[in-house]
Every structure is written in C-alpha cells, then in structure tokens.
Amino acid sequence: MMTTASAPGKIILFGEHAVVYGRPALAMPVTQVQATATVIKRVALPGDIQIEAPDVGLSANVNALPRDHPLAAVIHSVFSALGIDRPPACTVHIESTIPVASGLGSGAAVSVAVIRALSSFVERPLSDQQVNSLAFEAERLYHGAPSGIDNTVITYARPIFFIKGQPFEPVRVAWPFTIVIGDTGIPSPTKETVAEVRRKWQADTERYEKIFDQIAVVVHEARQSIKAGNVSALGPLMDENQALLRDMGVSSVELDRLTEATRKSGAMGAKLSGGGRGGNMIALVEKEKAAVVAEALINAGAKRTIITQIR
Ligand code: MEV
To answer: Same domain for 202 and 106?
Structure first.
C-alpha cells in the first residue's frame, strides 16, 4: 500500500516580520515548486518508521532521531493526534523542489505533505484545519516564534490575508497579476532572521513598532488594490514595503541588487519575500515583461527564477 500528498511553496506578498507582531500580511501559494511525501507500507514491527529524504541527505529511523527533530516530531504528532500508539511499519519518502531556507516555505510544505500522506496512509485523513494546526506545531521547531502564515497559506493553497491567531481570510484576486521570483542562492533560515528582528525590537521597541505600523498600512492598501483589481497600485506598495524591510535590517546587498535590477528592467515594484537576508525576492511585472525581468535577474546574479501568476 502507498499514499502520496503534495504541498506548494509560498511567497509573502506583503507584511513579513511585522506579521509576527500582530500586523496583517498577504501570502500566496507558488505551485511551480512542491514538496511531496509518499508513504509506503513495510514488512516490519509496528512503530518501525523509516524516513528517506534524499534532498537533505537524511535516511534514518524515526526512533533513532531526537523527538524534537522537525520530521520526527511531525510524524509523532500525526499519530498522537489520531490516537494511534503502534502505527503500521512504513517508509516516509520526502522529495521537494522548494529550495531550503530560501523564504519559499519549504519547511511548512514538507510538514503539510507528510501530515496528509501519513493520515491518508492510516485511512484517517485529517481536515485542513487539523493539518494546519499540526503543521504550525512543526513550524515552531523550524522557526522558533512563527506567525503561522506559512503553514496556513500552504495548507489551504490559496491567496490569504492573515493576522496571527485569527482565522485567515481568503483573498479574492479581481485581476490576475504576474510575479517574477528571484533566488539570491544564499540560504537564510527564517528562524535566524526572526530572532534577529526580535533582538532589535527589544533594543528599540518604539522604532520597530512604528515600522510594523507602517507596514500594516501598506498591507491594508495592497489588499484593497488586489480586491479592486488595481494592479498598478501594487508596485509602489512593494517598493514601500521593501524600504521598510531595509530599515528593519533584513535586506542585504544581494537582495537590494536583485530588486534594483528588476526595477531597471521594467518591473512595477519589488521586495524581498520571507525572512530576508538571503533567499528570494519578488517583482511585480506586466505579463509580457516577465521573461525580460527574469533574464535581468539572472544577469544580476540570481541563481534561479520562477514566473508565477497570482489569481
Ligand atoms: C516567513 O515566511 C514570514 C516571517 O514573517 C516569519 C513568520 O511570519 O513566521 C518572516
């Protein structure tokens, strides 16, 4: 017997970091990249679960990993949520085309895929809400103090308006728009940038709260523009959000170089996406200009690009 589940990557369109401090944010799924988990029955004693994740060089028995290892924890959490003490022996095979530590939600996507594949394997498929809450628990291990936006947008695989601790609101996109994603190729675990912002916020709370408030204004305006199909308003809002992220100290020379290159080649606006420092940036483009902007990104040093349509 065998079951498979996949989950998409994601981008934060507006509002990263400030969302950890209770401000709203907008996130979108990116289906061009996926994490896939396949669970295969094995002839062995119950409880004997093997993880194979060749992309990250992991081949191990769950019981040999520390209980707080993110993958071991997510597997234990599924069985514990289902009240299964002695799960059937199996191999959990994980593959992902989402680059790790790049701001595209690879950790959350792997969790969602594993939770869905395992719960289907034992013929007890979980609701989206249950999947989301288990994935959030796993995110805490990856990220330390996550807002929950990554697991939510990835579980529901649709554009969302998100405020920490509240039910998300689906975003209706009145007019589809095109985003070019550029990867600096520099790994930057979100856990570290989130912790760094926390240290800075503790040292200068007033300044950081002000930045977060300004970001919240941008997010609200962006949401209205998306709802109204006013795509041209989104470019300047992205630039504004990027300037605030730079003030916050989470941009970098490489991210600035890539965002600048997209603007010079005709993008309407650009910003980093996710934790920052390294990882990915996004640019809003007219559809016809997407290929030119993607090429400009490569010329400016991007390791790879993805063109995606938000609808
Ligand atoms: C990561 O995609 C977004 C951050 O705001 C962290 C979080 O919300 O958990 C940087």
So the answer is: no
1 band by pLDDT with thresholds 50, 70 and 90: confident
pLDDT given for residue 105 in this prediction: 95
280-285 and 269-272 strand pairing: antiparallel
pLDDT of residue 141: 82
Instruction: Indicate whether 201 and 270 sit together in one domain.
Output: yes
CATH assignment at residue 12: 3.30.230.10
Domain with 245 in it: 172-310
Q: Are 28 and 132 found together in one domain? A: yes
Residue 152 sits in the same domain as residue 177: no
Which pTM does this prediction carry?
0.97
Does position 98 have pLDDT exceeding 90, yes or no? yes
Q: HSE of 32 in the Cβ direction (CA atoms, 13 Å)?
A: 14
Write down the pLDDT at residue 31.
96
From 10, 14, 20, the mutation candidate for ligand 1 (largest count of ligand atoms within 8 A of CB) is 20
Confirm or reject: Cβ of 17 under 6 Å from ligand 1: yes
Report the alpha-carbon distance of residue 171 to residue 139 in Å, rounded.
23
Helix (H) or strand (E) holding 25: strand 25-41
What total number of domains does the chain contain? 2
**Whole-number Å distance between alpha carbons of 135 and 264:** 39
- Ligand 1 near 279 CB (within 6 A): no
Q: How far is the CA of 153 from the centre of ligand 1 (A)?
A: 12
Q: How would you class 186 by CB atoms within 10 Å of its CB: exposed for 0-12, middle for 13-18, buried for 19 or more?
A: middle
The predicted structure's pLDDT at residue 144: 77
From the CB of 138, is ligand 1 less than 6 Å away? no
What are the catalytic residues? 150
